[in-house]
Fold each of these.
Amino acid sequence: MKYSLLLLSAVLLLSCRKTENKLVQKEELPSQNIALVIDKSLSMYSIDFKPNRSEAVLNVLKNVISSKKDNQAFSIVVFAGDSYLICPLTKNKQELLTAIDKATKQITYLRPLKLGTSFSHALMNALYSLKGRKGQNSILFFSDGNTTIDSYPINIPINEAVSNHIPINSIVITPKDFAVSPVRLDLNNNLGFEKIKAIHVDTIKAKQIPFKTGGIFKIFYTQKDFDQFDLKKIIDNTNYQLPANENPVKTDPKDIINIYLEIEKRNDSITKLYP
């Protein structure tokens, strides 16, 4: 009887210690703040990815959000010729999924976004959404090609990301040889598609943003490869490491403040369109 009680006490003690260790480990998980930046320019409506490139990205992100960890918060920025923050940083899955649904049905290259592709505006908006947040901050940037409009010099968001230890991970989806892309728009705003030679992505240039900020670059030429890749690996394992040869030049703080004020004003305007 005596030995049984001792054995029971030992088992209970070990069980308590395991529970305590689990609680400590759970409490010690650092906050992860991730800005999701999604290209909604005209080319993202190409139907070589199903149902189109834009929704292929959004569908993958739905799965990422649905299975996110408790310590992970996301913000969502959509962009074309300019950008909007459609969901401020939050851990709330339903808020994030509602924003994804809004991006699918309501926000297009026609309204309220303007034509073109501005990486710099989108990245500054993403940085704005992470401003002042403690924890591991990073950006996950989705596009199908190259920037066409420079709202600001691209070195401004790059230097701001480096200065704040925020890696920018870049994901490009594009067919390698031929694309099925929109080539005309009728009076009812219906798109007409044709099979055309795919626009070449300058991968050397595309790699510069993630390389200079300590992020990861991935390019996917087929839907199958994109769907099978586990994006959570990038999110879970993003630890900031500044490349040895990068020495960021800080932008004048007044310029950054003015950019953020412009972006904040623009983001506020979308609530009038989609309250």
Note: The longest strand covers residues 32-39.
Amino acid sequence: MPIVVLACSAGGLAALTVVLERLPADLPAAVIVLQHLEPDRVSELPAILGQRTTLPVGFAADGDVLTPGRVLVAPSGFHTLIAADLSIALIPSGAAPPYRPSADLLLTTAAIAAGRQLIAVVLTGHGNDAATGATVVHRFGGTVIVSSVATSTQPAMPHATISRGDITGHVVALSDVGDLILTLVNAPMITPTQLLRGNGGAATGDR
């Protein structure tokens, strides 16, 4: 089963809306959304996104098993991890760095658990969270998509991942991210390496 992780920070609500509205109710992939949020702030993201996508949206809970066609949102106050059996594990984030919740931690554990079935998507945001996690995703055979700097409200997170070099498989305009996800999840037998070879070995889009 393909797993899609959407990571963002500042400007994330608008970016997530653009991506999720392109994904159909019968999406053959599980989706996890992570947006940075202060630990003591209650997130309204599931309720808002639930009105903007045909996919069911809810908070990730400890022990939840990833299922296709469902969007889980990382809750505030916890780092969201993926266990070997593709279930959710939550650990308190505390008041100190790293970024909270941490995209690096989520992507690293998801990469180890899901390997080449993982699609990591880095969207708008401050800082460099997700860059290290995306590196792990690439190392374990997964695919990394980044919204182009030009179409990101806050370009720091996309830029940090792109700057890691060839770990990024696709750099595309935000408006094209959803369609690219659909192409990838509907072609599960095509590996990220084969996709890159089809592009002449280069990442797509403009950086």
Note: The radius of gyration is 15 Å.
Amino acid sequence: MTANTQDLRNTLEAQNFQDEQSLNKENRKTLHKMMKYVRTFPLKSIEIEQIRRDLTGMAIEAQQRGTSLQAMLGEKPRKFCDEIIYSIGGIKAPGGRKLLHIAGCYYQIIGAMSIVCDLISIFALLIIAAGSLLNTGEPDLRIMDLLSVFWSLAIAIFHYTAGKRAYQYANDITKTKFALRWGIGVFVFDFIVNLSFFIETATTPSLPLSLILLSGMLSILFLIFPILYVVGAYRNRPHSGTP
């Protein structure tokens, strides 16, 4: 950054800070949320301050008209930010955010549900062990059952964390590599688990062919969300240029 550019950036930053002080709480909150979103893009600092300058000017104008910045935009703040970012920095909003949000929502839901169920199972097994200790003097620990539940709990925590990461990285294209690593990790893990489930089902003696086919269909179906995760992370890469 040259000296002139640095001076211009400092001037814009000072003007923006001063003008923000005249905003009411609602408009300032909207402005801060929009700027937080803008900063997730790989823009130069002076470009960020220029966008901040434009948005601050709009907020002041909205306030003078007796309305809010969000109402004045006429569309969702993030969509407006996407347009202004492209006009200034030539950067298009990545197309994988919705896919990451879907995958993130799915993994957080199944992860949270599984965690609750596993904790209840652990509590139930401990109650059984305590009851056995009182009745017979020896605890019925059911070690294999406990190990199975703890393994299930570890999987649930992994899925829930993967879902949280998908949501976190979806709104920050600088984290694309991390999102892609998590997506690949989830896909590989779920593929192995589903393949193991299918093989176990298919090799079960006297099992009807219809159940084996159903098992295969379910195994394929459950791979949709890790695929969405990987594709969403890949498409969430920053890119520029005309559409």
Note: Residues 97-112+153-238 form one domain.
Amino acid sequence: MNLHLGTFRLPRVLSSVLFISLVGFLGTSNADPIPPGWSAQNMEVVSYTSVDGKPGFKIALTRAGDRLYAITAHYSVPGWSVIDVTDPKNPKVVKFIPGPENTNTVQVDIADGIMVAALGRPENREGTGMDPKKPYEAGVIFFDVKDPLNPKELGRWHTDNPNGRGTHRNSYSGGRYVHLAADMKGYDGDIYVILDIIDPAKPVEVGRWWIPGQHVAGGETPQKDPNINLHNPNFVDGNLVYLSYGDAGMVILDISDISKPKFVSQTKFQQRHRFDVHTVSPALDRKLVYVNSESVISDCKGPLDHATVVDISNPAKPFAVGRFPTPVPPPGLPYKNYCDKGGRFGPHNMNQLQYNPNVQKQGNLVYLTWFNAGLRVYDVSDKRMPREVGSFIAGLPEKVYIPSYGNFVRMEDVFVDNRGYIYVTGGAQQGIYILRYKGPVKN
């Protein structure tokens, strides 16, 4: 075991395999100091950026010439920060792209030099500086980011529900079609919408699909499950699209006719769970997907969460073959489990943007954020027995940007670039950590 602790605010941990790292890996003057209190197992902490005081959330990668850029969205301000990560020890914020005023812009994806960013209703939370009672935009915006230092807006598409939530975690792997999780007029919860952006200045809806019961304006009766709501069209594999559909589970559709998506299968994992399926991440060469729910209630006062290995050799009949182990705190801490630590505990995001050429392709390692339990790295070489081989947990936020989220550790998004560097965001309260797995298992 290779486990390090940063300068800790907690009592000293007594164990022969633990030690205090007073310096950590601080990088050079171009990176911000790494906030104290972090702990890690089989992980090098390479650098940290506060993103100029705008905590990072969802991130996507793009390359321009010999430079690699991470573009991150923010909870607290409309817009996106461009970070030069060519030298991962010295991440540099080089550009801020303003978003539409008073609009939630937390979701972002990039392919073919086009950035696709969600537009939606802002949350009514102190610290965001936004107000859902004031005008905002609902839909999606497109930028040419072939030169990330000089982005150019290409167009916008608005939902037919201007007072709705807008769109959420959309998917774009390049080419002609963008896959949206959209709040459309007359529907209960977000549904699947396909846009044609052959002309990004004039996006056109070309297809949609929903769970029976969502189309209340069409006379359907909503199902009794608590959250029939599309979170994310995760990825397209040939003619199949994989959807994370909240309490409706994982849904697979056939989109060989883009105008008429057809149902293939639906798989549930935890009954009556508000976000039974939040993320589906592909390992297609093994005919597997990795699926997880989202922890949405603090202090474990909701249903049990899950992270599951699913066999998709027959997409019409997926079935679970393994479960990821729940993180366990090391000995010596003032809590025996992460439910007692405070805040949200449970899975959230994986290294799922496999279609991005700058992202590490799925191999033997799965990277999964667990909110207050930080980032966990799993060896999945045995699909029936995933095992934890690495971890990183940030210290408490040094500044609370959104008071209602509390002063808790809240690690949210993760992706791994094709050089092996890991990017983890602290969501509403912290910036971006750049890490490198140093354990014995190779991807």
Note: Confidence is low (pLDDT under 50) at residues 7-29.
